[in-house]
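Thread: "does anyone have the structure for this chain?"

Original post by V.I.:
We have the sequence but no experimental structure in hand. Need at least a predicted one for the grant figures.
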Amino acid sequence: MREIIFDTETTGFDPASGDRMVEIGCIELVNRVPTGRTFHAYYNPQRLMPAAAEAIHGLSDIFLKDKPLFAHGVEELLDFLEDSHLVAHNARFDFGFLNHELKLCGLPEVGMHRMIDTVAIARQLHPGAKHSLDALCTRYGIDRSHRVKHGALLDAELLAQLYIELRGGRQIGLGLAQEEEKDAIRVELAANIAVRPVRPARVFTASAMELERHAAFVATLEKPLWLEEA
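Reply from O.Q.:
Generated one for you, tokens below.
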């Protein structure tokens, strides 16, 4: 099972108002284990970076001006993503920007059926708690001391650790193996039950000889208790 953990940095919050994606970071997981394969790219947004956005991720106009356009690197990104499920924190935000960039290139959007949102998972596991990436890293003891500013690849690396914990932790492989073994046992038992012949109910009535022997034995008893008057 291949999954891609990814995060984006942008010029703002709304691609419909002209905001663009300026960075994407991706981590490959196979069977919920990082393989070491990553994808990371910066993009020139062809617009000025708002000060509020720059304060979050530190990506300035000067830094981004010589970076390629998204359209010039999109094939490399799509080759890395393949048809895998895509995991993101508050995934609709990242999917919205990714699909907006694909649409601008005249390419098909990524289907929402591929989306896995770790915020939704966290809400199910910890209702009423804080579900920011920072808060969840604290809850699960994930070290983020090196995270001074937001960065797509760094946040994807943190999210990969968090996603593994949300899905059962480092021992998830053992859990899956145990469940598969249990499922196999259930199937075998069901098959055995299905072919088991139906037997008629057994009759446990004493025979005439057994009744005669019992009466002879009772006759030898002196003053049995059940014959005494109450």
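V.I.: this helps a lot. Strands lie at 2-10, 21-30, 33-42, 85-88, 115-117.
O.Q.: and The first strand starts at residue 2 and ends at 10.
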